[in-house]
């Protein structure tokens, strides 16, 4: 739909030269982006919540998270259709309140995507290291493969958005095939006793085990809101975004439940979460498992087949690289939008003259990811665990703020929402806020330093904005100029 922003002050011609993106994406592309960006959650990350909590606690936590994300994508569709711009959350906050709220929301999503990208790059390297040596994966191979992943996908994203989308569809189908292979293999050694333990929840923790598992259960589905950043590059976003998002979410719920069932039924829950090895000094160290599904296959009798182990490992890479691909898309688009609007240095908002891809933002985000991959050599537990938890916590922050923006804009500018309105449009967004606040609260019970680390990153960013950025923010939100999209707004 076409809407003139309330803060626009200049004629359309004055903004026509600003950076713009192509609009080739359709419903299948959006579905693939939604599923592909998230499907890495089935391959790793969620398993860290099994440690000391057990399978049933993870199931309950996962069902809570599935409800949160189903309501979230429906509410998000309403915002992304009303304002189909690459800035996503920063545009919602700016239009509903002021540039400072836009910056907080945009920065939140950037952190969410950036740390998810870091965790997935390292996990991709871990899977490759497992393929090279299933019995003793090498940290050096993990690092080298992760850095190669960063470089390859930087080049793919520089190439062009339609080429990315085609690759995403192929990789997403491959990732789903990998999960099906895992379910079949794991079913040969499935035991309900590994899941239906006595007691069902750890005796020492009880229901606290469910609370402790929630932050890791969020990893199943976090980043699906990356699709909102594709609105500016979507054909008829009022149709493609809601349909693609909802179908992606329903697909993912099925994948979550089946992957949990067969993984926990094939192997002890704690062994899926951590592994113990000897370090160079001969001391036993505990490390997070980067390849839980591959480890489960290796531990069952069917895993004696070299063909099965390597076939699954190779196909599993589709899941990891599909998600990495989607995460790079989200990270670069958010950094691009922040730069284009003037919140951060404006050169980050530039695009390639011919391919119309955000090359400066891709360079910076890829360098950050590569730096953390190297740091993982010395701090594996801190980088892996911290990246997953920072990503999910910053996601929850902007979910809550986004729903506030939705209610404000519904009241102030009802005409924005003429093309699409979410079902149960009052209660559903409230459900998102309640579940997000609950999920954010349980972080205080986890023995990690994720909350202070996240607070420091917000403090540094806000300090930059207050002293430098706010004086450079565009006087009119160029993300909200329909002339930038390159195509006319769709008719209703």
Question: Would you kindly provide a written description of the structure presented here, covering whatever features stand out?
Answer:
By secondary structure, this protein is mainly alpha-helical. The protein has one domain (21-474): Amino acid/polyamine transporter I. 63% of the residues lie in helices and 2% in strands. The protein is built from 17 helices and two strands. It has helices at 12-15, 27-38, 40-43, 55-82, 89-96, 99-132, 139-159, 161-187, 208-217, 237-266, 269-273, 292-299, 306-340, 359-375, 380-412, 427-441, 450-467, and strands spanning 274-278, 284-288. It has a two-stranded antiparallel ribbon. A hairpin with a 5-residue loop joins strand 1 (274-278) and strand 2. Helix 6 packs across helix 14 (359-375).
User: Strands of the biggest beta sheet: in what spatial order?
Assistant: 1-2
Number of strands: 2
The domain count comes to 1
Based on secondary structure, the structural category is mainly alpha
- The low-pLDDT segments are 1-18, 476-492
The CATH topology annotation reads as Amino acid/polyamine transporter I
State the CATH superfamily name: Amino acid/polyamine transporter I
Mean pLDDT over the residues: 83
Radius of gyration: 22 Å
Estimated share of beta-strand residues? under 5%
* Cα distance spanning the termini: 8 Å
Q: Enumerate how many helices there are, as a single number.
A: 17
At the first level of CATH, the class is Mainly Alpha
Order of helices and strands: HHHHHHHHHHHEEHHHHHH
Q: Which term fits the overall shape? A: globular
How would you characterize the largest beta sheet?
A: 2 strands, antiparallel
What is the CATH architecture assignment?
Up-down Bundle
Helical proportion, percent range: 55-70%
